[in-house]
User: Fold this.
Amino acid sequence: AQPRIGGQFRLAGEQPRRAQILDLLDWYERQFEKLQVRLHLNTYAEAGDIRALNPDAVILATGSLPDEDGFQRWLPGKDRLPGIDRGNVWSPEDVMRREAKLGDSVILYDEGGHWRGLGTAWAMAERGHRVAIVTPEPFIGKELARTSSDIGLRPRLAKLGVSFLTEHLIGEWHGDGATLRDMLTGKDTHLAASALVLSTTNRAFDPLSTELDGLETYLIGDAAAPRQAPYAFHEGRKTALAI
Assistant:
């Protein structure tokens, strides 16, 4: 329940050099007004509320949530990051909402190689935090390289003092630093930090579909499976055209 549309996509627009996302969301709001689409903002919807509307169809776009266990895809044998309960662990969304208490130095662990993690690192660096990006990939911004979006990103991060540690995993979080594991040698090292930001795969958030039996229901976007924004746009349009 938010005062404006957009959810995590709006938070992405708060990252440096991504204001075009906010322009797009402003356009959507104008279109909703023009087409007389009713918006119920700051409102939670339960199954009973939806049934009371007697809808012909229901599209569920409830999104996804950060994985609270700190699971790393490159460590499938560990369901939970050791030490995550020691605190000072945050998601990129926490950071962009300015809810995270980061302190001076931050480790950002990035599995996605996309804007969610790297844009957050950029924002933290511009706010004056000392940032170290740790990634299991051989270089940061792997997915951004597909569209050459990384060309200006890495030099900018370097100028802001952001350090890069590639082909490393988070072995354990200690509350004031992390044990990092070198994927090539297996060697462990300690890196001090006041906070850890985990940019790992989100978990789909779908609290409603099982409670809407008998209704024509469609599950789209991150609510079906966490992915990038273009998939959500595609599924939304495809579903709307099919109804």
